[in-house]
Design a protein that fits this description.
five-stranded antiparallel beta sheet
Length: 635
């Protein structure tokens, strides 16, 4: 675990706990109080931990074991064959694919015109910081947990060990089993304390905190998922607990206070670091934004709880019905495929010889009759059993929004491309709703990143961004433009400090091949219709204002700019013509006419090609709409 502080202040605690030093906030009594709070939090959250672990067992195809442990059904009680269908797994896979298609990308907008340049730089720098943290992998892990367990957690912190001690932002997908908060709160920011516990190698921890004497005790147990084959070896490990808590401080206004965030790291009875005892953080707190570094993304919320429900929660009942019917149907088919017999005791037939299929002749003592050996009657399942299974499967798909149209198929009788696209758009509303909530969480993560830049980016850093015409460009960025600025009041008086604020707009990355193809075709159509002809700018602007597509505002701005440049060029050309000598006016007039008088040149070879040869435009449009149904902005 990457702890957030690696340098222990002078006078840090030994194994007996913090010494009784005057003015120290985290003494032994205070540490015991925090440990008691942590124990109560984990005890209150134990049912949630067990529920999440059971959801993971369902994901790992241990359905029958979960149902037997619940006592809801006696599935597989006889120890025979048990069906473990993967309908719920397929639901999670399909929803995760929708989430990856809607991978978010931030754009930073200023709230003051004077911050426009800083917002533009942040729009370039922030994606670089997120990319260095492997944001695509973080997004994937965060969404997997949200779909399976009911929620995903993102941890946004400052890691001083990055870049050889320069430090940088760290964004990770956190395991909820390692976290503890007050069980009765509905928002993680309302919890008085938030804990994060993890096993850390004792030797590595001793090297990180050389002035602290670690206890030689067994690590405290942390809730964990069951391992299928691997065993967890805790020898040489210690349990390190990170504790974030808020302290109310006065603001100077009577009756008004604000919360500052403090940070404590301890193992057992040993304090490794306490921000309240650090002179650099005792007054200002650990993070200036004063928020816990954890953001929860909930799938289906539960009232009065930080956590929610996932697709396994809402689909497991239908999945159990499918598994029960599958088990019964397969066992019935096995009974029919392998005949069984009733044999009379002492009937004179050797059972071993009868079961040996390599023997062509079976010897029998006495007379041969049907009373000695008779085949067990077999009754195959009727069609209503198969219909019941199909209904259970359809129930599971409908309740989870994983219908045929959402996976690219259509029902019987639906052949029109526009009708298929309409079905896909309707089925995609669940994914759009889910991704829209995740975008809001992603926006909170981006705002925390900006606040961490404001607090810690004192030294300039260089980033490689994509500049004009796609060429790489290197820019230097620090927090000087993010710090509060002195404002001037009327008459040159002191107007106080203004803190630059920014809005985060999140949209889906247009990374799919079809999206690029559709965008390219749209540009070719605009060119073919003369939208880029400055002499027709007024008509083009009127048409674009009635349209809606990504990048419309940028295109409108460029068309208006080209129109103004064209008008100025015409004015300058007229001025040059009036000042030219008579013998040169004819030549200049012809040159001006050739330069400014023509219409938009047509594309060689005719009109812009369609996306697919021979594909009707209606079908192409339907395909474009269907591609964007899972993105919150509709693509």
């Amino acid at each position: 675990m990457e702890l957030e502080q690696q340098v222990v202040p002078q006078g840090s605690a030994k194994s007996a706990g913090p010494p009784a030093v005057a003015g120290r906030k985290i003494d032994r009594a205070r540490l015991m109080e925090i440990q008691d709070i942590y124990s109560r939090y984990r005890s209150g959250l134990e049912p949630l931990y067990e529920h999440i672990k059971q959801c993971e067992e369902w994901w790992r195809q241990h359905n029958d074991e979960c149902e037997r442990s619940d006592g809801t059904v006696e599935i597989g009680k006889d120890g025979g064959f048990v069906s473990r269908s993967t309908w719920l797994v397929n639901v999670c896979i399909s929803k995760h694919a929708d989430a990856m298609d809607a991978m978010p990308e931030p754009v930073i907008l200023p709230r003051e015109e004077s911050d426009q340049q800083t917002a533009t730089a942040l729009s370039k720098v922030l994606p670089c910081v997120l990319e260095l943290n492997g944001i695509r992998e973080v997004w994937s892990g965060w969404k997997w947990r949200k779909l399976r367990h009911g929620g995903g957690v993102v941890k946004t912190t400052w890691d001083p060990s990055k870049h050889n001690g320069l430090g940088d932002i760290s964004v990770q997908s956190a395991n909820v089993l390692n976290l503890a908060w007050k069980p009765t709160v509905g928002d993680i920011q309302d919890s008085p304390y938030v804990f994060h516990a993890e096993y850390v190698d004792r030797t590595a921890l001793a090297a990180r905190y050389p002035k602290v004497e670690l206890e030689q005790t067994a690590p405290m147990q942390i809730a964990s998922f069951r391992q299928d084959k691997e065993t967890e070896d805790l020898r040489g490990m210690v349990t390190v607990v990170e504790c974030y808590y808020k302290v109310a401080v006065p603001t100077g206004v009577p009756g008004v206070s604000r919360n500052i965030l403090h940070y404590l790291v301890y193992t057992g009875d040993t304090v490794l670091y306490a921000s309240e005892d650090d002179p650099d953080h005792a007054v200002r707190g650990w993070y200036d934004h004063g928020l816990y570094p954890y953001d929860f993304d909930i799938l289906f919320p539960k009232e009065g709880s930080v956590w929610g429900m996932g697709y396994i929660d809402i689909g497991r009942n239908a999945q159990t019905k499918v598994d029960l019917l599958d088990t019964a149907m397969i066992k019935n088919a096995m009974v029919g495929a392998i005949p069984r017999y009733l044999k009379r005791s002492g009937g004179g037939i050797s059972t071993e010889s009868f079961l040996d299929l390599n023997k062509a002749v079976i010897e029998v003592d006495g007379d041969i009759s049907e009373t000695g050996l008779r085949e067990v009657p077999y009754k195959p399942l009727e069609g209503n059993h198969i219909a019941l299974r199909d209904a259970a499967i359809q129930e599971l798909r409908e309740t989870t929004g994983n219908t045929e149209s959402s996976t690219g198929n259509s029902g019987s009788g639906v052949t029109a491309a526009s009708a298929i696209a309409a079905l896909q758009e309707a089925s995609g509303k669940v994914s759009r709703d889910e991704n829209a909530v995740s975008y809001e969480v992603f926006s909170r993560v981006c705002r925390k990143c900006i606040e961490l830049m404001r607090q810690f980016y004192d030294l300039p850093r260089t980033f490689r961004i994509t500049g004009e015409a796609g060429a790489p460009q290197f820019i230097s960025f620090d927090n000087r433009q993010l710090k509060p600025r002195q404002m001037m009041g009327p008459g040159g008086t002191d107007g106080g400090l203004r803190r630059p604020e920014f809005d985060v707009i999140v949209s889906a990355q247009k990374a799919t091949p079809y999206a690029r193809m559709a965008q390219n075709e749209l540009a070719l159509q605009f060119y073919d219709k003369g939208f880029f002809d400055p002499t027709r700018a007024e008509q083009a602007i009127m048409c674009l204002e009635m349209m809606d597509f990504q990048g419309k505002d940028t295109l409108l701005g460029k068309i208006q700019k080209n129109a103004r440049m064209h008008q100025k060029l015409v004015q300058y050309a007229q001025l040059a013509l009036s000042l030219a000598p008579p013998e040169m006016q004819q030549v200049i007039a012809q040159d001006i006419t050739a330069t400014l008088g023509g219409q938009a040149a047509p594309i060689p070879g005719g009109a812009a090609p369609a996306l697919q040869a021979g594909e009707p435009r209606t079908t192409a449009k339907a395909r474009e709409r269907a591609q964007a149904v899972t993105q919150p902005q509709g693509g």
